[in-house]
Amino acid sequence: MLQKVEGIVIRTTDYGESNKILTLYTRELGKIGVMARGAKRPKSRLSSISQLFTHGQYVFQKTSGLGVLNQGEIISSFRDLRADIFLTAYSAYIVELLDKLTEQNEKNPYLFEFLYQTFHFIDEGYDYEILTRIFEIKMLRVAGVGLHVDGCTHCGANEGEFSFSVKEGGFLCHCCLHVDNKTLKISAATAKLLRLFYYFELNRLGSISVKQETKIQLKQIVEEYYDEYSGLHLKSKRFLNQLDKMNID
To answer: Does residue 55 contact residue 75 with C-beta atoms inside 8 Å?
Structure first.
């Protein structure tokens, strides 16, 4: 049985001398695996459609196990995203995070659209660091981890200055800091962006201008939160941290 899907390549694995196994995140079926026979050969008609991050239409033979890719047509290759080592590294982290937090054949059209929009904005030159933070924060729900950003997690106060408590899963006001002696001090801008990124739809994204200090706070919060609750250890994240350190140096 032939099936046609719209998908983005989130992982590729070499198989034998000339084949590839593609992991696609699709609009219609969620995450699926397909065999692309001969895709490693430069002249193969499946070569271009089998590249990491490629967005396209895929026709495959559906079986009880791994599908077999018959043909494909590129919708977007995200060329600019591929041309820059930082954009490529951040995108690799995004797809690995998605891969680790999703199961096979779980339909989620919203998540597909979210991935596509993230890549589209990165490819268009929007701030890739902030887009990655947005992706991480949104994926917390997929991971089954909540985030309390509507006010103080302890007393409910929704005005004033807040710190962030990994232990409590969100904001603590200045009156409730005794609940956690390891809170992260954050600016009003950081608190506002955390709340915004957790709730807003990415297709409403306008221009992005975030101070470096705020970026650093957002990154620290998200990293510590994932370290505490996700149990993930991603190869792409280690490489990303190395690149960021080189960029700072």
So the answer is: yes
The CATH number of the domain covering residues in 2-77: 2.40.50.140
Q: Sort 123 into a burial class: Cβ within 10 Å, 0-12 / 13-18 / 19+.
A: buried
As given in the structure block, the two tokens for residue 187 are 């600016």
| Claim: this prediction has a pTM higher than 0.85 | yes
pLDDT by position in tens, the chain (length 249): 899 999 999 999 999 999 999 999 999 999 999 999 999 998 999 999 999 999 999 999 987 778 999 999 999 999 999 999 999 999 999 999 999 999 999 999 999 999 999 999 999 999 999 999 999 999 999 999 889 999 999 999 988 899 999 999 999 999 999 999 999 999 999 999 999 999 988 888 877 789 999 999 999 999 999 999 988 889 898 888 888 777 655
**CATH 2.40.50.140 occupies which residues in the chain?**
2-77
